[in-house]
Design a protein that fits this description.
The complex is a heterodimer of chains A (346) and B (234). Helices cover 42% and strands 13% of the residues of chain A. Chain A is α/β, with parallel strands linked by helices. In chain A, the strands form two sheets. Chain A has a six-stranded mixed sheet, with helices on both faces. In chain A, strands 2-1-4 form a three-stranded antiparallel sheet, with no helix packed on it. In chain A, helix 12 links the parallel strand 6 and strand 7. Chain A is globular and about 75 Å long. Chain B has a single domain, classed as Rossmann fold (3-Layer(aba) Sandwich). Chain B has a seven-stranded parallel sheet with strand order 3-2-4-1-5-6-7, with helices on both faces. In chain B, strand 6, helix 6 and strand 7 form a beta-alpha-beta unit. The longest helix of chain B is centred in the first third of the chain and has 18 residues. The chains are: A alpha/beta (346), B alpha/beta (234). The interface between A and B is large, with 51 and 47 residues.
Chain lengths: 346, 234
């Protein structure tokens, strides 16, 4: 309630000018401010009569604290740069499922780095990601410790709704809102309170279209996008509009999307990318990979030069497949020559 | 004993979240029991039993489930003490989106799900606005953008609450939630004299008393009419 005193004297009109986001706040809290611009907050709240308070289930005292809390939170949120200043993430060892100490040197991950995470199902990949998301301080089952920028993490990473450390992209995600691409992005941009909304939206659509095999129009309903287009939009939106500095990817399906470009887009926006995958093409795109077994981090492998060569071979193979996919889409016949041909525009 | 009240709209994932959270609490050696409130029927008690959680259920039948909750909460606390619980969780039916059987000084948690739509937070009354922790479920099936928008809407109607994402199926986030539920120093002995955080909706019209016939002459007591042409109509 840092603002408590300052807020008291101000009129609604002045507050709205200073904090435009309050318009939606009043709306969502069912408070009518029409014709009440000259009142202060407490005067405004006192104009609501008993019946209305009862009907709308409002509590004046709680609302007063909420307004002030909300303004504090938004000021803090707006004052931060896009990435919330996470330049480096450090994982310190804890122990595995059987209680043995993990034996690795602190793992340092810098922004714009891609880290793959490998290990069989149930080996503890999710727990590692959860430790990062919760900024574990030897207080989770693994006893691991997470540092941000070499320091103990701020509490906000655990508890603030607008400062989540990790954004997630996974295989089974869908859009469930009945909106067009443009409306959808507007909504997200509004909730993030970005300036220059239109240019951000254009940028996202443009980037998404670069990732998707087939382009889509801003007026397409998000629920009518193909699987590839949906994933492309989700990735572009997460890269550009999400507040979270770390992006966790749980496999990216091959179909209809350029995965290399997708990763480049994410790291280009200075995200840290963590990727749980066993797809060699993706895993080798990582700078390093974390190997997990029995709930513990077994080792950290740096992608070797030989593996990088393998990666470029894999990319050629992938491009051949993409080329065939494209021909099929447009009703062409495949020939054995296609096996040798790389798809130049894929 | 600690006491925590869970509520949230039907099918938002309350039981799954509680079950996954209890699992994490049990690993710390805590004894947790649940009292499930519902209206007509519930099988959730079987789920708790299967998980080895001491459970009782209360069906409100023809009464408002939240009124029923307040009238019975003291007996519920007595039961929990008798069972020797470290933590007693009550799970509400959460039917009308207005009520919340939250009690002052007793931790209150509201469970919502991402699929319910972004306008849901503002439609929910004290059940969300008066909660200490808002849990958002089903995040694994919607996009990152939708999760962010939904969370921001929740934050707007209750900026003071901790907003957490918990996945009731795989338990992601449940351990983290469990760390917020139990405090060793806290001892709830009786609720006598404590107060609800918000009053329940006023009722008592002829239909509350069993009237079934339709028509103005049968309507008595606390009755209100829609203003078909008034403010707030399009």
């Amino acid at each position: 309630m840092k603002n408590g005193k300052r807020l008291k004297a101000r009129k609604i009109s002045q507050l709205l000018e200073l904090y435009p986001f309050l318009t939606t706040f009043f709306e969502d809290n069912l408070i009518n401010i029409e014709g009440k611009a000259d009142l202060t907050i407490s005067e405004l709240l006192s104009t609501i009569d008993e019946d209305e308070l009862e009907d709308k289930a409002l509590d004046v005292e709680k609302l007063t604290t909420n307004i002030s809390d909300y303004i504090d939170q938004m000021i803090e949120f707006l004052g931060e740069d896009g990435n919330n200043g996470v330049a480096k993430l450090t994982i310190l060892p804890g122990r595995n499922k059987t209680g043995e100490d993990e034996n690795f040197d602190p793992i340092e991950i810098n922004k714009s780095e891609i880290i793959s995470i490998v290990g069989p199902t149930g080996s503890g990949k999710s727990r590692l990601l959860a430790d990062i998301e919760w900024t574990a301080q030897e207080d989770t089952p693994t006893m691991r410790k997470i540092l941000i920028n070499d320091e103990l993490p701020d509490k906000k990473w655990r508890f603030s709704s607008s400062n989540k450390l990790v954004a997630q992209l996974s295989q089974n995600m869908n859009f469930v809102m009945d909106l067009t691409v443009k409306e959808f992005l507007e909504l997200h941009a509004k909730s993030r309170m970005v300036e220059e909304e239109q240019s951000v939206i254009d940028k996202i659509i443009n980037e998404a279209n670069k990732l998707a095999g087939e382009k889509f129009d801003p007026d397409t309903p998000v629920t009518s996008l193909s699987g590839g287009q949906s994933r492309a939009l989700m990735i572009a939106d997460t890269a550009i509009l999400s507040s979270s500095p770390i992006v966790l990817i749980d496999e990216i399906e091959n179909a209809g999307i350029d995965r290399k470009k997708a990763l480049q887009l994410l790291v280009g926006e200075e995200k840290i990318v963590l990727m749980a995958t066993h797809d060699p093409l993706l895993a080798l795109m990582g700078d390093k990979r974390i190997v997990i077994n029995n709930g513990g981090i077994k080792k950290l492998i740096k992608t070797s030069d030989e593996e990088k060569d393998i990666l470029s071979g894999l990319e050629k193979m992938d491009s051949v497949v993409q080329g065939m996919r494209k021909k099929l889409r447009y009703g062409e016949l495949l020939s054995s020559e296609d096996l040798m041909k790389e798809n130049k525009n894929a | 004993m600690n006491l925590v009240t869970f509520s949230g709209p039907p099918s938002s994932g309350k039981t799954s979240v509680i079950l996954k959270t209890i699992k994490a609490l049990k690993e710390r050696g805590l004894k947790v029991g649940v009292v499930k409130f519902d209206a007509l029927s519930t099988d959730d008690d079987i789920l708790y039993e299967k998980a080895g959680v001491p459970v009782r259920k209360g069906l409100s039948g023809a009464l408002c489930p939240d009124h029923y909750f307040v009238s019975n909460i003291e007996e519920v606390v007595e039961w929990g003490k008798g069972e020797g619980l470290d933590l007693l969780i009550t799970e509400s039916a959460g039917l009308c989106n207005r009520c919340s059987p939250y009690i002052k000084e007793i931790k209150a948690i509201c469970v919502l799900d991402n699929l319910s739509g972004i306008n849901t937070p503002k439609k929910i009354g004290p059940m969300l606005k008066m909660a200490d922790i808002a849990i958002i479920t089903k995040g694994d099936i919607v996009s990152q953008a939708e999760r962010e928008v939904f969370a921001s809407r929740v934050n707007m109607v209750n900026p003071g609450a901790i907003v957490m994402h918990v996945n009731g199926l795989n338990g992601q986030g449940a351990f983290e939630l469990s760390t917020l539920l139990y405090e060793k120093e806290e001892k709830i002995d009786s609720l006598k004299g404590k107060k609800l955080r918000f009053s329940m909706p006023a009722a008592l019209c002829s239909y509350c008393l069993g009237e079934t016939r339709i028509g103005e002459s049968y309507q008595m007591g606390n009755v209100r009419k829609i203003d078909m042409n008034g403010k707030g109509q399009k």
